[in-house]
Design a protein that fits this description.
- There is one protein chain.
- The chain is mainly alpha-helical and 153 residues long.
- It has a domain of 72 residues: Winged helix-like DNA-binding domain superfamily/Winged helix DNA-binding domain (Arc Repressor Mutant, subunit A), CATH 1.10.10.
- It is 36% helix and 7% strand.
- It has six helices and two strands.
Length: 153
């Protein structure tokens, strides 16, 4: 993986996760893990990624606790990669990225895939950001502020 500046000590909760996510390939691996892929060969076939690059990305995701490498359930010599709780926490990020892509990265009549509710097979609603009292919020409705000191009584 190309070495770049670390955001590990950044006070920004947008910058800091970038160290764990790594790059676009890592997000595509996580996307595929949500789709049920678990084995190295499955990821490689679906992504068309060189083995050494895929191995590095999988290792990075395991080191950051997004994926866990577990023994094959059939007792085989290979291992499988499964999402951890931290990895499953990326679901809403992937949905937001997907919905942004649906809106801005395709021509009107260009075919694409769509996220649907498994039970009813209907398209999922767009993600919304709401205030504590339920109001819909947009970029002009929020501010970035320091976290209150949690140690104070």
């Amino acid at each position: 993986m190309v070495k770049r500046s670390s955001h590990r000590t950044s006070g920004c909760p947008v910058a800091r996760p970038l160290d764990a996510i790594g790059d676009g390939w890592s997000l595509l691996i996580v996307r595929d893990a949500f789709a049920g892929l678990r084995r190295f060969g499955e990821f490689q076939k679906n992504l068309g990624l060189a083995r050494n690059i895929l191995a590095a990305r999988l290792r990075h995701l395991v080191e950051h606790g997004i994926l866990a490498a577990v023994p094959a359930p059939d007792g085989g010599a290979y291992q499988e990669y499964v999402l951890t709780e931290k990895g499953r926490g990326l679901f809403h990020l992937l949905v937001a990225l997907r919905q942004w892509g649906e809106e801005f990265c395709f021509e009107r009549d260009e075919p694409q895939v769509q996220l649907r509710d498994r039970l009813h097979r209907l398209p999922v609603r767009r993600l919304e950001l709401c205030s504590h009292d339920g109001r819909l919020l947009g970029p002009d409705d929020v501010v970035v502020a320091p976290t209150p000191d949690r140690r104070a009584p």
